[in-house]
Amino acid sequence: MERLPLKSKVLNENQIIAESLRERYREHGVLCLNLISAPGSGKTALLERTLASLDPATRVCVLTGDIQTDNDARRLAQYGFPVQQITTGGTCHLDGRMIEKHLAAWDLDDIDLLFVENVGNLVCPSSYDLGEASKIVLLSVTEGEDKPLKYPSIFFKSDLFVLTKIDLLPYVPFNAETAEANARLVHPDIEIVRASSTTEGGLDAWLAWLKQRMAKELVAAQ
Amino acid sequence: MHELSIAESILDAVREELLKHPGARPARIGLRIGELAAVDVDSLTFCFEAVLHDTDWESLKLDIRVCKQRGLCKDCGKEFDVVDYITRCPACAGSNTTVTGGDELDFDYLEVETHGTPAVEVKSAE
């Protein structure tokens, strides 16, 4: 019996694609953000409000992932920006190859901001690097305050936590401070914004975060 | 349930490694999986057995070492095991900490049987 030492990562193939995507984003000055949450936390709604409030001259594109249907792509396409649906046909996460394949339809020189809306799932997407600059995790106030403790990996790997549906806070037994404290227990440096895509309360804070990240990307590209 | 795709990735890697060792038979594959990797060990073991079913490698064993999440306090310098994903420093109770390990999803080793099989296959002259 002979033991051969192995050095590579199990998801090495995905990692190689992710690094190549990251390099291409850097070369072309694209800020890629990977939005992750449980199904129904409001990823698509937040993107809709975001696209509606962006200057039409903003060079933004969206890749939206789901197991079935192109409903989300149709919802998002109404705002006039390029959108593609990625239908995974059963796979519970997006991987680097799916992103690479769909990006082939676009010229990266025409994109400044690329939103990737992952499949609704708090577990599996956290294992797959898509070459993004940041992962963003969403949690709505109709879920549990302890979700950051139940799904620590995604809260640990995300740079920003968006607490969504805050217009419902008066009607649900959800303590926003507790949820935020739980996220900070897992990831002390995580940035947090609260937003409602229905009343647009708090949307300013999210858009300000976005602007600041885009500005940072611009400086890095120069 | 991404454990099935991970199990398939493991098999792909074994196949690729064996190309460098013709004639060798894989016996055991070692992995290091961190607590933060979001991979369920039982589910991965189940999926791994499922993808091996009815193949020549049914006896291939999976050896998983779970790696603790490790933290470092940037205030007092304490290095510690993170328990229940809570990153607060156990020494000074400060929250100015950083995670230094626990995100692994790495191969460790491949054990192969090589006895009785020459490293390079020699074809006899007919």
Task: Draw up the topology in text.
The complex is a heterodimer of chains A (222) and B (126).
Chain A: E1 2-5, H1 12-28, E2 31-36, H2 43-53, E3 60-66, H3 71-77, E4 83-87, H4 96-103, E5 113-117, E6 134-140, H5 147-150, H6 152-157, E7 160-164, H7 176-186, E8 191-194, H8 203-221
Parallel strand pairs in A: 2-5, 2-6, 3-4, 3-5, 6-7, 7-8
Chain B: H1 3-19, E1 25-34, H2 41-52, E2 61-67, E3 70-73, E4 79-81, E5 97-101, E6 105-113
Parallel strand pairs in B: 1-2
Antiparallel strand pairs in B: 1-6, 3-4, 3-5
How would you portray this structure in words?
The complex is a heterodimer of chains A (about 220) and B (about 130). With about 220 residues, chain A is an alpha/beta fold. Chain A has a single domain, classed as Rossmann fold (3-Layer(aba) Sandwich), CATH 3.40.50. In chain A, about 35% of the residues lie in helices and about 20% in strands. Chain A has a 7-stranded parallel sheet with strand order 4-3-5-2-6-7-8, with helices on both faces. The N and C termini of chain A lie far apart (about 55 Å). In chain A, about 45% of the residues are buried. Chain B has about 130 residues and is of the alpha+beta class. Helix content of chain B is about 25%, strand content about 30%. Chain B is built from 2 helices and 6 strands, in the order αβαβββββ. Chain B has helices at about 5-20, 40-50, and strands spanning about 25-35, 60-65, 70-75, 80, 95-100, 105-115. The longest helix of chain B is centred in the N-terminal third of the chain and has 17 residues, at about 5-20. The mean pLDDT of chain B is about 90. The interface between A and B is large, with 34 and 37 residues. Strand 1 of chain A pairs antiparallel with strand 6 (about 105-115) of chain B.
